[in-house]
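call fold(seq) -> tokens
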Amino acid sequence: MTQTAKKGGRAALLAATAAALLCGLFLLMQQAVREGVRQGLVLCAGTLVPALFPFMVFSDVLAATGKSEKTGWGGRMFGRIFALPERCVWIFLLGALCGIPLGARETARAWRAGELDRESAERLVLMSNLCGPAFLIAGVGAGLRHSVWEGVWLYGIQLAAALISGWLFSLPRRKKGRQIPLAVSESTPHITRAGRPHTDPHAFSSASSSASPSVSPSSLFSASHARRASSPASSSATAVSPFSSDSPSLSSPAPSSASPSTPANASDTSLRSLLPRAITRAAGDMLGVCGSVCLFSAVSALFSACLPSAVAAVLSALTELTGGVGDLHAAFLSSPSLSFALTSGAVGFGGMSIHMQAFVFLDGTDLRAGRYLSGKALAGAIALVFGAIVGRFL
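ret:
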């Protein structure tokens, strides 16, 4: 048995054990679990869907029209500092201004289009999967902590921690003297773990070299650990969900000419064609996001029911950030500076619910979850230090 197979077996055993333990806890504490899921649904309906869905739709349209290619001096500076393609500045700004999970969504799109290699995409998703200013300034700052300036500081600390982490992760590339990846050939085969090439149903495609590329849909269930996308016209194979023996991706069917649900004008970039497809994909993406929120809201409810308030608050913030920052504020009312530092660290890390929302879009790529999580842990530590310093003066 190879080392890779052993690692995969250990990971599968760990995942199965964790799932079995959680199922047992869910059965024993059904009331707390139901309340957690209910709170998650309220959060999704009242906050996430209204805040994210329009941005998901129109970011899809923007990417399809190709207008995000123009970057100017800001893109050039961003590319030089972080060793990334210039157009990545748009993905960073989308994630920083519109919030989670749009940065991860657009990074996965760029990877599937062949615009980023694996290492660059891993750094970009680390830097762009961020909480938006509406949540941190209006929600946490003004609404929860009764201070707009605390929200501004939290947002600024989060940005600084993400950028510093991304820059630190770019150092190995700089030391090796590797050039910034501008594009990857569209003819690069899409390889599965078993070594068999197949077509990625989420790849950008074009009818000819002069045609505009179609938009890459995000998938909730896609083939595991693919490397690069080949043109759908070059292969009749379709990716199959790892959760089903014969069902294709639920988010969008594979772009095959035989598929009745694939529009004949898939490369049409008119608004009449782009908008319906963008709405359909955004609706599927929101389903995955809301599922992650509901699951981790239930886990946070278990912490609150079983553990002391201070411990439960910290674990809740690391699990489901939206409810966790409220728990931190309530648990550390007597120490505002400590509360602010812990909140800064939690925001810098993001929380497992947020990371699972990112994994919804990164499923089907070869991007490494361990590298992403280690980068977020580093960002959380940096934000914790910054929060401890700033908290003394608030």
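Residues 158 and 348 are 5 Å apart (CA to CA).
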